[in-house]
């Protein structure tokens, strides 16, 4: 069953792309020449956006990130490796001068206020902070 889960063009990713496009941002998708192959790349703003699934990227404190009961050791190692890979990609992008936003699946699926999310992301893009996360760390727990 897990092999049928897609790694790109997921529902949360399509929603975020639609919100950004409606807000006037233009972007490219999944650039292979950047670390971590970001979901959304806005070259004009030197900004990348990752739309992370809460389960696959082990979003701490999130109810969507429940660890499977069967084959638990495998999943623990797999999800730990995913988080480490994400951390390295973000560090490398920041070193290269890119600004990085991570939008978690729960911020998209758990909220009917997509306009609020779009406004927050647009405000961050217009600002100068190098890193942002939606929802912010600690907001879930």
What does this protein look like?
This protein is α/β, with parallel strands linked by helices and 141 residues long. The protein has a single domain, classed as 3-Layer(aba) Sandwich (Endonuclease, Chain A). The protein contains four helices and five strands. A five-stranded mixed beta sheet has the order 1-2-3-4-5, with helices on both faces.
Determine the structural class based on helices, strands and strand pairing. alpha/beta
For the CA atoms, what is the radius of gyration? 15 Å
Tell me how many strands there are.
5
CATH topology: Endonuclease, Chain A
In helices, the fraction of residues equals: 25-40%
Query: Regarding CATH, which class?
Result: Alpha Beta
Mean pLDDT: 89
Strand content: 5-15%
Domain module count: 1
Largest sheet: 5 strands, mixed
Which sequence of strands runs across the widest sheet?
1-2-3-4-5
Specify the number of helices.
4
User: What's the N-to-C terminus distance?
Assistant: 30 Å
What letter string, H or E per element, gives the SSE order? HEEEHEHHE
Spatial shape: globular
């Amino acid at each position: 069953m897990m092999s049928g889960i897609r790694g790109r063009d997921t529902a949360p990713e399509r929603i975020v792309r639609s919100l950004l496009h409606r807000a006037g941002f233009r972007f490219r998708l999944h650039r292979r020449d950047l670390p971590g192959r970001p979901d959304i790349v806005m070259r004009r703003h030197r900004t990348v956006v990752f739309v992370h699934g809460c389960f696959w990227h082990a979003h701490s404190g999130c109810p969507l990130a429940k660890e499977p009961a069967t084959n638990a050791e495998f999943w623990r190692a797999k999800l730990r490796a995913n988080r480490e890979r994400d951390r390295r990609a973000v560090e490398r992008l920041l070193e290269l001068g890119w600004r990085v936003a991570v939008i978690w699946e729960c911020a998209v699926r758990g909220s009917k206020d997509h306009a609020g999310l779009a406004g927050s992301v647009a405000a961050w893009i217009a600002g100068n902070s190098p890193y942002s996360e939606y929802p912010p760390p600690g907001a879930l727990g």
